[in-house]
Specification:
The structure is a homodimer. The first copy, chain A, contains nine helices and no strands. Chain A is mostly helical. In chain A, helix 4 packs across helix 5 (88-105) and helix 4 crosses helix 6 (107-113). Chains A and B meet through helix 7, helix 8 and helix 9 of A and helix 7, helix 8 and helix 9 of B. Chain A binds a DNA duplex through loops.
DNA sequence: TTTGTTAAATTGACAGTGTCAAGATTGCAT
DNA sequence: ATGCAATCTTGACACTGTCAATTTAACAAA
């Protein structure tokens, strides 16, 4: 086994990957404040300063985690889309369901992805910078493509994109879980009952 | 002057308030990661362990900052509402404008308010706990009251609340500022062009 | 194979941080 | 004035990110 061969080796072999998965595990277990370079290093079985050779500081590791999160995010939406009926309404509805499914099942990661992390562009190593731009554009593209069939009276389909994205994102942010001491809510309407009102209005062909 | 009299005193006089305003200043200047108990203490002119007598740890101070943020948030929406025409549509539209105005002018604080901070209810001192529940309920009440006139076919007006809140919150979260390495956007449609589509559809009297 | 160069990981150190314990100071009711 | 409780300080500890110096491993060239 390759793993047994690499067990005693000085070089880890794939430390960058191991640190990202370790970070996601720690994030899911202990929340954002528990995400620590030293803990990731310990979980990957390396010394505390080893991550410095793969990430330009803690912020870069966080950005890499967000990039990985966007990959998972896009996957969830893709799967939801592919098992839906193949018409624009069903497709967009399924993608929103995937959006909310990811926000519900990976709440910590989802909220972590849309937080400011004080990352100046030059403080991120080039590898991580490429990953985050690719992954974030890809996950946004899923929703953008699904909105394309819905023409809008002004501004092309950008208006539809903005409306749908704002609606589903706000819904996910507010109701995926009650964060801390939010106002008490009654039963929250299902998103299935919300989106059609927006779509029917936006699509003159309907 | 009271201040000069209190300058050399051992007791600060109003350290709790001073710490909260110091925290908001630091948050606006250096971002969430710069918000530190020791920095707040230094800015308030007390020793590093003084805050422990007013807040049950850093998390409680953060929650107190969020409560103060909700007060400012509600004020902004109130002012926007009061200078609008007094009909349901204009009122709700103005409140959403206030919502976005706060998110734009206090972006750091706004995003900080809607982040998870790993606050177990029993880890927050009672004073702060009362403040956050009062303040968050008050700020949510502004939007709730503005949605009340718009009856909805199912679920009373809760559906309208959920729709409008999700829409404006998502819009604020996504477009108040480009956080870090988001996908490249074209021009974002103004919220004034978005909300009416939702309202007109939701209000059968229109 | 031997050698030299580079990448990868380790060790050690330093300044900050949250938090606790113990002591000192102040304000206030009695 | 006296005692008590609230308030603040000092000191300490473990943990964190980050840097510098060093050791180890991998690999290409001779």
């Amino acid at each position: 086994m390759g793993k047994q061969n690499q067990a005693k080796r000085h070089h880890h072999g794939n430390l960058r990957e191991a640190l990202i998965t370790a970070a996601i595990d720690i994030l899911g277990a202990g929340g954002p404040d528990a995400l620590t370079l030293r803990k990731c290093a310990a979980r990957a079985g390396v010394s505390h300063a080893a991550p410095a050779h793969h990430f330009n500081g803690l912020v870069s590791l966080k950005i890499a985690v967000i990039a990985r999160g966007h990959d998972m995010f896009a996957d969830t939406m893709h799967r939801a889309r592919d098992r839906a009926e193949q018409n624009p309404h069903a497709r967009l509805n399924a993608i929103c369901q995937g959006y909310l499914e990811f926000a519900t099942t990976h709440t910590d990661l989802f909220k972590f992805m849309f937080q400011p992390h004080g990352a100046l562009p030059d403080s991120i190593d080039t590898t991580t910078g490429m990953e985050i731009s690719r992954a974030s554009m890809a996950s946004y593209g899923v929703l953008r493509d699904a909105c394309a069939p819905f023409e809008h009276d002004r501004g092309g389909n950008l208006g539809t994109e903005t409306m749908v994205w704002s609606l589903v994102h706000g819904y996910a942010m507010l109701f995926s879980t009650n964060t801390t001491s939010q106002a008490p809510f009654g039963p929250i309407p299902d998103f299935n009952d919300i989106l059609p009102k927006l779509l029917l209005k936006s699509d003159p062909a309907q």
